Amino acid sequence: MIRVFRDINIDWLGKRRIFIGLSIVLMLAGMGTALYRHRVHPNGSEAFNLGVDFKGGTVVTVSFKQPPSVEGLRAAIGKAGIKDALIQPVLDKRGWFLVRVPHEGFQESQTGESQAGVDAARAKVREALNTFGAEAEATKSLPEDPKAAYKIEGTEAVGQIASKQLRTQAIAVTVAALIGMLLFIAFRFEWTYGAAAVIAVFHTVLVTLGLFSIFQIEINLTVIAALLTLVGFDVNDSIVIFDRIRENRKLYRRMSLYDVTNLSINQTLSRTVITSGLVFLSVIALVLLGGETLRPFALALLMGIIFGTYDTIAVAGPIMVWWEKRLEAANKLPSLTPRQKGVNANLAREERARNGVGKPSRAA
User: Fold this and answer.
1) How many CA atoms, within 13 angstroms, populate the side-chain half-sphere of residue 249?
2) Both 280 and 138 in a single domain?
3) I need a labelling partner for 357 at 20 to 30 A (CA). Which of 166, 241, 242, 336 fits?
């Protein structure tokens, strides 16, 4: 195996207060930003920049004879006054695009308002598309109309009720993944190891979401998929270190848990850096070349890999050591010296003698 670091001896646990303090600052900054936005916008919709999947909106499907670039289509839609629209090419149909338009005040229970929102979004998109040419007649397909440049193939609404269900399901899936990881590591190692790993993963998720709130990066279903991917990636890194800790505790029985943990982190540091570095390079390519559609997903992965690698090294280990020491102190009875044991035995005999317990029988 390639080793980036040889004979490294860093006291990671000695710097635990700095690392944990930095983590707390990052989490508080993200949570503080989200809470501030929540207070400024009482409906809470601006704490995070939620996409159409979670906020509700309209999805317009468009086909072109001569498809424009995604950037050109986005610019035309922006000039028509449509903000935060998401342009997504349909991969299996050349010249087809999905235009996702978020809108506020969408009431699922009121059919009239719902249809009005859909019609308004469709009209705005049509206004933007007219810059590319005429629309095909409703009774004709796009190839059948020689004068047409595009055609609106369909319009769908994503209501607030469906969006709230998606939000609830996304949170439930993330929590279920964390609980599943906790149970697996608790079964495979010890529950303290599992708790430390889950706290580290939770830290990664919170910091990533906090940065999304600070920079108002859109959160959609692909971001949730990225967060779930990070849960598995982060826990896998933690398991590698915990497995080495378990092996070293058997090899170095006289070494303290503090020193064993430092040794294990240093021994696995090359593997952690190489694995995370290769994934980092792949995700950088997605961020730079993946386009607007994949950018939120790629940014979530990028942030998660950086902070996931950080907390695997600097957060999970110190939490596990702290927890193990607390449990050991709580469960371990104070040991007595032989002299203390003798004094206690004499006191016990005197107490029994005063109470008439254990005196020898005269008949004996």
Assistant:
1) 12
2) no
3) 336
Domain with 216 in it: what CATH number?
A: 1.20.1640.10
* Nearest CA among 219, 215, 213 for reference residue 35: 213
- pLDDT tens for 31-70 read 998 888 877 765 444 678 877 777 777 888 898 988 888 8
Q: What's the residue count for the chain? A: 364
116 and 214 share one domain: no
What confidence tens digit (pLDDT) does each residue in 138-162 have?
Answer: 788 888 888 888 888 888 776 655 5
What is the DSSP secondary-structure string of 179-235?
A: HHHHHHHHHHS-HHHHHHHHHHHHHHHHHHHHHHHHHT-EE-HHHHHHHHHHHHHHH
Q: Residue 110: pLDDT band by 50, 70, 90 thresholds?
A: very low
Residue 196: name the closest of 326, 78, 299 by CA.
326
Rounded CA-CA distance 86/99 in Å is 6
Residue 175 sits in the same domain as residue 70: no
Tokens read off for 275: 């694995």
Beta bridge partners of 58: 101, 157
Arithmetic mean of pLDDT over the chain = 80
Q: Are residues 33 and 180 in the same domain?
A: yes
CATH classification at residue 100: 3.30.70
Asked if residue 285 and residue 272 are part of one domain, the reply reads: yes
> d(Cα 257, Cα 316) in Å, to the nearest integer?
14
- Confidence at 346, pLDDT banded by 50, 70, 90: low
Rounded to whole angstroms, the Cα distance separating 172 from 166 reads 10
Q: Which amino acid is at 24?
A: I
CA distance 123 to 60: 10
